[in-house]
From TrEMBL:
Organism whose genome encodes this protein: Anaeromyces robustus
SUPFAM superfamilies, A to Z: ARM repeat (SSF48371)
GO cellular component: spliceosomal complex
Record localization: Nucleus
Name under which the protein is recorded: DUF1716-domain-containing protein
Keywords of the record: Coiled coil, Nucleus, Phosphoprotein, Repeat
Protein's GO biological process: gene expression
The keyword Electron transport belongs to this UniProt entry's keyword annotation: no
PANTHER family cross-referenced by the UniProt entry: BETA-CATENIN-LIKE PROTEIN 1, BETA-CATENIN-LIKE PROTEIN 1 NUCLEAR ASSOCIATED PROTEIN
Stretches assigned to coiled coil: 410-437
Length: 474
């Protein structure tokens, strides 16, 4: 009966299906770019519909039916404005005509559906992915738009709006995700805005609260990514993060991976972001003090002992912790029996399991280089003879196996560095006199070949020779 009621055309489609395809064809036939006249008309239409909605809302505040249609028109026009993203070179017109102010006003609209549509629009207009595809004029227009939005308190409005979105609802949850995407867009376009965002808003506090929630979802994962970005290159952001008890929050978030691995690729990425954020924060001495007090070293040692996926990043965190002016931290590390876990990794214990279980994530060379860096800093910064003896004893025990290991690594890295050095010497003869840029490039190649690790290994061997007369028991 259903087939008899359907009217089919020669192409086999029902009338309803043909209508759907006609709509799709109309969309596809629209020009992919917008010229200046179309751009201006779009702006004027948007302003007109926005003004009408505001007037009706004021006039009939107690009767939503009176402004419902204008709200639907406004939502539709916001979506239509997204086509402007194809012509970032025209964005200065949005600034010139004060349209940015109108767009940002929608973030405080009483109807959260409108504010979410506005978030979608801003996210589309500032999409960082277009940076590599546009010319200088387009890039200048994009930067002009971002600057004007920041000057008109976009960050403050976006963060305030986060607090009224309820992530139990699908639309609001997507609104949160797109808001985080806007932050990433802005910082990618202008990196210094990472500090502006933290300085002018409570975004760090919001992120810390969000990642403290036990349930895992894509928004929590995205928060971890934004946190890593915010802490990457800013001392001010790292110190504020520490003041907000962010270190203990990160340690609690990471502690769940002490005895279990992430369940999927998204959770792996979140864990990696947490570790990256922690490493960035640990550049600051104030964060190192807090990390020590919050028993961060103990947690990292447990992760190394468990030999799960987190082991690789835990060793990296310890490297960052013990690098710098760190005598107190180095001696504390030895005091809490860190040498046992460190030298187990140094000797390659558990490597076969790690390679088999985590072939995509695990790097044996990266792990051993972090171990070498830690040992080098221990020799450099430990002042107490008691702790130095314990460190040297590790190289003496078990029939000097760790001496044999350090010599083996010395020869490996020596070979790699010398091989690269010969290639550079050959190229230098071909180039003749080198400019500064080429010199820098050659230096980076030396580092990539393992020069720094080779130097650290030599440093360790030198210390072992110096302390050869220390009486050790084994």
């Amino acid at each position: 009966e259903e087939e008899e009621n359907e009217s089919f055309y020669a192409d086999g489609l029902t009338e309803e299906q043909r209508q759907i395809y006609d709509i799709i064809d109309q969309v596809e036939d629209e020009p992919s770019t917008v010229d200046i006249n179309t751009f201006k008309k779009m702006i004027l239409k948007f302003e007109k519909i926005l003004s009408k909605n505001q007037q009706l809302r004021m006039k009939y505040a107690d009767d939503p039916l009176k402004f419902m249609d204008s709200e639907a028109d406004l939502d539709e026009e916001i979506k239509h404005m997204m086509s402007a993203s194809t012509t970032p070179q025209l964005y200065p017109k949005l600034v010139e005509l004060e349209t940015v102010k109108s767009i940002l006003s929608l973030l405080t609209h009483e109807n959260t559906d409108i504010s979410i549509a506005c978030i979608d629009l801003i996210n589309e207009l500032t999409d960082e992915d277009v940076l590599g595809e546009i010319d200088e004029e387009g890039e200048a227009g994009l930067k002009a738009l971002v600057k004007d939005m920041v000057d008109k308190q976009a960050f403050e409005l976006l963060v305030a709006n986060l607090n009224r979105l309820k992530e139990t609802q699908d639309e609001d949850r997507q609104g949160v995700f797109n808001t985080l995407s806007i932050f990433e867009n802005f910082i990618s376009i202008e990196p210094k805005l990472a500090e502006v965002l933290v300085e002018k808003t409570d975004i760090l506090k919001w992120i810390i609260n969000r990642i403290s929630q036990k349930e895992f979802d894509s928004n929590k994962q995205y928060c971890s990514e934004i946190l890593a970005i915010l802490l990457q290159n800013s001392t001010a952001n790292r110190l504020k993060f520490c003041e907000l008890n962010g270190v203990i929050c990160l340690l609690k978030s990471l502690s769940i991976f002490k005895r279990r691995d992430p369940e999927d690729s998204e959770e792996i990425e979140m864990m990696e972001n947490f570790f990256d954020a922690l490493c960035s924060a640990l550049i600051e001495n104030k964060v190192k003090e807090t990390f020590l007090k919050d028993e961060g070293i103990e947690l990292m040692l447990l992760m190394i002992k468990e030999k799960n996926m987190s082991r690789m990043r835990a060793i990296k965190v310890l490297d960052y912790t013990l690098t710098g002016d760190t005598s107190m931290y180095c001696e504390y590390f030895i005091e809490v029996h860190g040498l046992k876990s460190l030298f187990a990794a140094f000797m390659g214990k558990g490597v076969k399991k790690m390679k088999k279980a985590y072939s995509k994530q695990y790097s044996e060379s990266e792990e051993i280089e972090h171990c070498i860096s830690i040992i080098s800093w221990l020799f450099k910064k430990v002042n107490s003879m008691k702790y130095l003896e314990r460190l040297v004893t590790k190289f003496v025990e078990n029939d000097f196996e760790k001496i044999a290991r350090i010599i083996e690594l010395y020869l490996q890295y020596k070979e790699k560095v010398e091989k690269e050095e010969k290639l550079i010497e050959k190229e230098t003869k071909e180039y003749g006199e080198l400019d500064e840029e080429t010199e820098d490039l050659f230096y980076l190649r030396r580092l990539d070949s393992g020069l720094l690790t080779y130097q650290l290994i030599s440093h360790i061997i030198g210390h072992l020779c110096i302390f050869k007369e220390i009486p050790v028991s084994y």
